[in-house]
Amino acid sequence: MPSPAGRSAKDFFRPLAVGAPEPLREIPARPSRAIHFFDPSNPKMAAKVPQLTGTVDVLLGNLEDAVRADNKVAARESLVQIASSTSGLGGPDGSAQLWTRINSLDSPWVLDDLTRLIPAIGDKLDVVMVPKVQGAEDIAYVDRLLAQLEAKAGLDRPILVHAILETARGVANVEEICGASPRMQGLSLGPADLAADRRMKTTRVGGGHPGYLVRQDPTTTSDGVLGQERPTYQQDLWHYTIARMVDACAMHGIYPYYGPFGDISDPLACEDQFRNAFLLGCVGAWSLHPSQIEIANRVFSPSVEDIRHARRVVAALNRQGGDGTGAVMLDGKMEDDASLKQCLVLVELAEQLAA
Ligand code: GLV
Ligand code: MG
């Protein structure tokens, strides 16, 4: 797979030690725990951008859903203005990456989004997020257009592409989407559009649902009397899709993300949803309100205890022979080549975030 030109060697993943799992292919290993969405045409949100650059990994100027049709041009122009005038935003040296979510490929706005943004702020734009991707052909179209616009603008740093998984067809084609271009940076789950496309009977933007339950089996006493207590347990609506997305991303060496959690007033449930995604392999999530940035930064960073434990396992296995093979007992648990690999994932992530 060709590597995006113009990156320095330190921007790329390296395996840490013998026995580490396959590194992601050579896409920039820049932290992107929170992808913070702002509507560039909303003056209140736009005003917050400069102060957010030091606190968030990614700022994303949203041009698609949630931006009114009669505001599309204003949002695009305002994004150009914000990107040009905000120091520390976007480009190889930016403290926060700059992404944009363009309009969908079947909309009347997307061509103008790309032809306006790339010549004007292509040197700042790190990633273009493409919504409602259905298959590899959508990525091929964006890839070709970006290549033409980059060449015309004389840009030598390729803009990467991120796809939102939010249609049933997109989910069916997830592996080919991930491998459709060397520009592919990652995928996000889009639970709101996906729910609608699947004709799910929900009305929320991500998260759980109080009706999606399993009920505990009835208990009987020794006299054969049925117990009254039948607790129910809420289930995760998104487990299947996240797991499928994570596998496809891992197979192609790109990054998986949970998408939006719409109930800003419920930070606890947001944290739970983000943590499930982190444990399943995601590297980040969207933030729709500044309060969700802190949640994502915390949840998508390994905890001090996890890093400490991971380092102990690595040290214990390296002590015996130093090549990461074999087995040791630590705190009564067996650790071997496979647990070493899991621990290296956490240690590698901690090092990346600390760099
Ligand atoms: C995001 O775009 C979603 O549809 O959930
Ligand atoms: Mg959507």
TrEMBL record:
GO biological process terms on file: oxaloacetate metabolic process
Domain of life: Bacteria
Annotated stretches, region: Disordered: 207-227
Cofactor(s), names only, from the UniProt record: Mg(2+)
Keyword presence, Metal-binding: yes
Ranges for domain HpcH/HpaI aldolase/citrate lyase: 34-204
Protein known as: CoA ester lyase
Transmembrane segments: none
GO MF annotation list: lyase activity; magnesium ion binding
Residues annotated to bind Mg(2+): E166, D193
Keywords (A to Z) from UniProt: Lyase, Magnesium, Metal-binding
Residues that, per the record, bind substrate: R101, E166
